[in-house]
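The material for today's practical consists of a large collection of protein records. A record pairs a protein's sequence with a compact description of its fold. Instead of coordinates, the fold is spelled out as a row of discrete tokens. We will come back to this pairing of sequence and fold again and again. Here is such a record, shown just as it appears in the course material.
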Amino acid sequence: MEPEEKNPESRYGDPRKFDPTFKGPIYNRGCTDILCCILFMLALLGYFAVGILAWSQGDPRKVIYPTDSKGQFCGQKPLLFYFNILKCASPLVLLELQCPTTQICVERCPDKFMTLVKALGNKDDVGNKTTFTDDGGKSINATDLLEASKKSNVVVEARAVAMRIFEDYTQSWHWILLGLVIAMLVSLIFVLLLRFLAGVMVWVMIFMVVLVIGYGIFHCYMQYASLKGIAGSDVTIRDLGLLTDFSVYLQIQQTWLAFMIILCIVEVVIILLLIFLRKRLRIAIALIKEASKAIGHVMSSLFYPLLTFALLSLVIAYWAITAVFLSTSNEPVYKVSNTTECMYSTNTCNPETFNSSNITTECPGAECLFAFYGGETLYHKYLILFQFYNLFLFFWCANFVTALGQVTLAGAFASYYWAFKKPDDIPAFPIFNSLGRALRYHTGSLAFGSLILAIVQIIRVILEYLDQKLKGAQNKCAKFLLSCLKCCFWCLEKFIKFLNRNAYIMVAIYGKNFCTSAKDAFFLLMRNIIRVAVLDKVTDFLLFLGKLLIVGIVGICSFFFFTGKIKMVEVAAPSLNYYWVPILTVVIGAYLIAHGFFSVYAMCVDTLFLCFCEDLERNDGSSDKPFFMSPDLHQILSTEKNEQTF
């Protein structure tokens, strides 16, 4: 590799002398896509109005606590008793989450089966009988009773699992936080080492990923072999069904066999990719080295993902809270309930005025009981539209925050590339300046690209909803058509994300509107499609291996800690209902943290690559049209051109 020249002007000249009209990211620009910016601001105002309306009408207690037949909450440690559990066997119970029978709050579950008639007659019925007699004298089998109780307990069991998971979080939250801090430190150290030892670290990363997955295969095999011959370990997952105690699945051989097969497939795929891409790895490593130099001059870029994470957390929290308040903003609806024939049965009623109405006269024994939560006001009629608007704005805002991060990083790294004298021509605060330009001039362009992506995402949600509705349908043609649409829109979303990312880079470089930038980026990439496949995507693959390595290291350590397999800290490990809860939380958190750090590298590589392609088309390296690229980057791409085998 050629040594970097101390004075690049001697070889390349000063491009600003020959093309004073060139507009890089640090030059003057105007506002873009103003109409879309205004539309986005109005949509946000509407979003805030929906949130305020939902918060004034909703009651989250309806999600946490069950209600009796009068719509009253059962308290903080609720148990709900159903008078006729058989009526809960209806499939409508799973949809409406309400059982058409009288319900009361009790402190403990009864241990006897008894009808109201027998209770009044003071006749005890021991609760170990296989057949029972209801009020009408009909004999009921215990199997029917069990089926009814299972369906009525779906929500109760779900709440119980949620409470146990919540308890695990309360016991292990500080250890989870420590695991995430370790993941952040490992990611930061890894990125800093890439800055100075890019070549060595990439090869170490490749070796460690293969080694960690290999250890996972070995561990799964040892667990599989240790369960051989143990009673009950040969039970299949299908025979077990869905259990709330997930630790049971780890006691059967089939689970570990499945894990081992999955890891073997991943290992083989990674090794084959490394073999086929071995000639391109050296070039990709050199490109990572160049990206490391850019990040070294823009070190604040490593911490920008924290701002993106904070903004995304705010967007998610607002959406979730608004969704909960919207879903609990229904009013209690009461209906007439009567055991005999009555013309007013199932009609809505008011419990405060029911006893003084003529219904009790015409239908003796009728009661005004709580049925479900609903409402007939204008607000309640359009409640589903408010939920839809909440979801759509969530997608739009989340995509906007992501786009803002991409444009900010692209602008900072583009200012590095287009600085002729590095680092003298680089702005003093590249990230801050780039963020200011993005918000001041290109909010409309970011909102435009985010809107297109949000529309595709909401269509995918609608298609998933329709797919769930057609699960029991017999129309195979409709199912096939729906599957094709889901596949097409999934591909469309991936393509739009790819196009948006490169369009935002062009917005950061030239300051043009979104459509023009997307068109320029697309055709620029098409003119350099081989370089995109050879360099950009191979580099993305290497960075993905880095994420896997960090997640694997943190995940293995958390597994041994929370399962008490580390003798030194066995006493410190918390006692949990499900030890997979903190492990899964740490693994997901570690991936998000690693993705945040490595996304900076990925954005840097994509920006430098696009700038390089633009530089090659604008200039030829002569004294009249000198390159902006560094001699090292020029050598990297020259090597790529010479080794091109396509």
